[in-house]
Each structure stands twice: as structure tokens, then as C-alpha cells.
Specification:
The complex is a heterodimer of chains A (41) and B (193). Chain A has 41 residues and is mainly beta. Chain A has no helices and 3 strands. In chain A, strands 1-2 form a two-stranded antiparallel ribbon. In chain A, a hairpin with a 2-residue loop joins strand 1 and strand 2. In chain B, the strands form 2 sheets. In chain B, strands 1, 2, 3, 4, 5, 6 and 7 form a 7-stranded antiparallel sheet that branches. Chain B has a two-stranded antiparallel sheet with strand order 10-11. The N terminus of chain B is likely disordered. Classes of the chains: A mainly beta (41), B mainly beta (193). At the A-B interface, strand 1, strand 2 and strand 3 of A face strand 7, strand 8, strand 9, strand 10 and strand 11 of B.
Chain lengths: 41, 193
């Protein structure tokens, strides 16, 4: 995963110089949950 | 009134199954496209990546599937032919080595529908929707703190030739900035490894 992100509660704002793909991944005792992204308009 | 086929004998349940499957595919993506990106895969070491593919058109199509490792190295290059209105499921379990993440790109010369399922670790099959490349967006962190819980971002640069400079700013629940990070994503690289 993204280095250093670790555990956090809240929201991550991402900006990229080029279009990229993204997905939020939650791992709890190796069980995964995926969260979609919200485009900023 | 006499019917040539008794309604009681009409076996409707297979059609309900097909309808549910198609509804799942359409709900997962919503529209057909010629290029579809999936920001996460799991393969090798017992992990499996599966795709459900549907050709909504009246002519046969061929879908090219490419699965990439986090480093940008190609893991799988495959192609699947679909007849008119045909739906197929394909699975990529990989080998018995160490499980790895990555991402996938599916292309065809005609529009198609696709959704992804991954099987990794003790989790049941997890659905992954196709993602659109974006330059600015927000992602929720999981709103629960507990032992053994981690939240991460699977970021992918789908460009085959140009790096992406990425800035991530984390805000807490009250909107206060708590951390700021930068990352250079090389061509075809992904952070889910």
C-alpha cells in the first residue's frame, strides 16, 4: 500500500500530475474491504 | 384457454439467474467501454483474480486482458473471445509462489462490460469495479480504529511511458490536516504490493 499511510480516520485528498487509478483498501486481520473514490469537482 | 406449454411447467429459474448475473455486471460498471481499468488484483500464492465479461453487441468481440505487478512488470497477457450477447467468467490463480497485488487493463475494439472479483487470504470473494483515471479526488479512510486494522491506498499510473507525481494530504474527521506525502509513480506502477 501507499508507504506510511497506516491507520487513519478521515479523508485523503489526492492530486496527481497525470490521471491515475485509485482505491482505498481496508485490511482488518487480513480481511479486505474496498472503498471507492470520490472525484473532486 | 389452452396453452401450448403449461405455465406451471415453464422453468423460469434459469432465466432469473441469468438476469441477476447481468444486473450485477451492469450495476458494477453501468456502461460499456473499450478500455477498462481495475485498480487492484490479487494473484499467486492461493489468491485468485476473476473477471466477468459481457459482450452487449451483435458482433463477436475479443477482449485483451493484461495484469500488471506493482512494479509494472506484466503478470498475465490473455485474450478472450465473446460471441454476440455472450457472458464469460475467466480466472487467473497464478502460481504457488508469494501472493502479489497489482492492477489490470482490459481492452477491446468494441464496447464491453466487465467487473472483477478477487479472492485473497481469508476474505470471501470481493468485488472490484472498473475505475476511471483521475487527477484530483478524495478517498475515505476507514472510520474505525482497532488493533490489526490498516487503511491503504492502491494507486496506479496506467501510462506506459510517463511517471506521475502524486501528492496525498490526510485530513482527520474534523477536517484538520494531519499528514502530507508525495510519491513518484513510475509508468505502469501500482502501490498495492
Amino acid at each position: 500500500m501507499f508507504p506510511g499511510l497506516g491507520v487513519f480516520d478521515g479523508i485523503a485528498e489526492v492530486e496527481s500530475s497525470r490521471p491515475i487509478l485509485a482505491l482505498s483498501v481496508r485490511s482488518e486481520k487480513q480481511r479486505l474491504t474496498l472503498l471507492p473514490i470520490e472525484p473532486v469537482r | 384457454m389452452n396453452h401450448p406449454v403449461s405455465l406451471r411447467r415453464f422453468r423460469w429459474w434459469p432465466f432469473v439467474g441469468v438476469a441477476v448475473l447481468l444486473a450485477t455486471v451492469i450495476a458494477a460498471d453501468g456502461r460499456s467501454r473499450r478500455v477498462q481499468y481495475f485498480p487492484m488484483i490479487a494473484i499467486n500464492g492461493g489468491a485468485v483474480t476473476a473477471f466477468l465479461l459481457h459482450n452487449p453487441g451483435k458482433r463477436a468481440i475479443r477482449v485483451h486482458l493484461r495484469l500488471w505487478a506493482p512494479s509494472g512488470a506484466e503478470l498475465v497477457a490473455d485474450q478472450v473471445s465473446l460471441g454476440p450477447r455472450e457472458t464469460r467468467r475467466v480466472e487467473y490463480p497464478g502460481d504457488t509462489g508469494k501472493a502479489t497485488g497489482g492492477w489490470a487493463q482490459l481492452t477491446s475494439d468494441r464496447p464491453f462490460l466487465a467487473t472483477e472479483l478477487i479472492l485473497a487470504g481469508p476474505s470471501p470473494w470481493i468485488g472490484v469495479s472498473a475505475a476511471s483515471p483521475l487527477r484530483r479526488f478524495k478517498i475515505f479512510g476507514m472510520v474505525a480504529r482497532a488493533d490489526g486494522l490498516q487503511t491503504g491506498l492502491a494507486l496506479t499510473n496506467p501510462s506506459p511511458s510517463k511517471s506521475a507525481d502524486v501528492r496525498v494530504v490526510l485530513y482527520d474527521m474534523a477536517g484538520k490536516e494531519v499528514r502530507r506525502m508525495t510519491l513518484e509513480l513510475p509508468p505502469l506502477a501500482n502501490t498495492s504490493g
